[in-house]
Amino acid sequence: MKIMVAYDGTLQAKEALVYGIEKARTKGGEVIALHVFNNEMFVDYDATVDAEAVARGEAAGYVAEAKALIREKGNGVNAHLYTAEGNPEKEVISFAKENKVDVLLCPPKFKAIIRKYKKALPASEFAGETAKMNVAAFATKSL
Fold first, then answer.
1. What is the DSSP string of 80-141?
2. What is the pLDDT of residues 71-124, one digit of tens each?
3. Is residue 105 within 8 Å of residue 10, measured between CB atoms?
4. Which of 37, 42, 103, 113 is spaced 20 to 30 Å from 13 by Cα?
5. Is 140 in contact with 96 (CB distance < 8 Å)?
């Protein structure tokens, strides 16, 4: 089983990553996490000159946290973290399809994915458990 976590650095994303690692350990399989830096947000951005640099610094912190979680909790589990740039929702869906994941775990920040695929929520065996963490779990056959 291949479990993917859309990782955005939020508490829910951290919980989803740990949950995914635990499920991969008990059911067998692997976990892939994807963090997407939303570089599209800075096109025609009229804020401070260094706003993108500050945002990139925050994103690097999220990536470091995810790597630390994988190191600490992922012993014996095939778990990897990837990064990308672009529209987070589009990148997550594209990455999930390309990597043929079985389950996608999305924190609330990914509202567009959750809205679009909410009909698929009951199809995931993890849906009930992840709802307690405020994380949506999708069977990716519906993507």
1. EEEEEES-HHHHHHHHHHHTT-SEEEE-TT-HHHHHHHGGGGGGSTTHHHHHTTT-EEEEGG
2. 999 999 999 999 999 999 899 989 988 999 888 888 888 777 766 766 544 545
3. no
4. 42
5. yes
CATH number reported for the structural domain that contains residue 83 in this entry: 3.40.50.620
Number of domains in the chain: 1
C-alpha distances in angstroms, 129 versus 31, 96, 103, 137?
A: 17, 21, 13, 9
State the chain's mean pLDDT as an integer: 84
Instruction: Select the more confidently predicted residue: 45 or 27.
Output: 27
End-to-end CA distance of the chain: 16
Show the tokens assigned to 112.
Answer: 């567009």
pTM over 0.70: yes
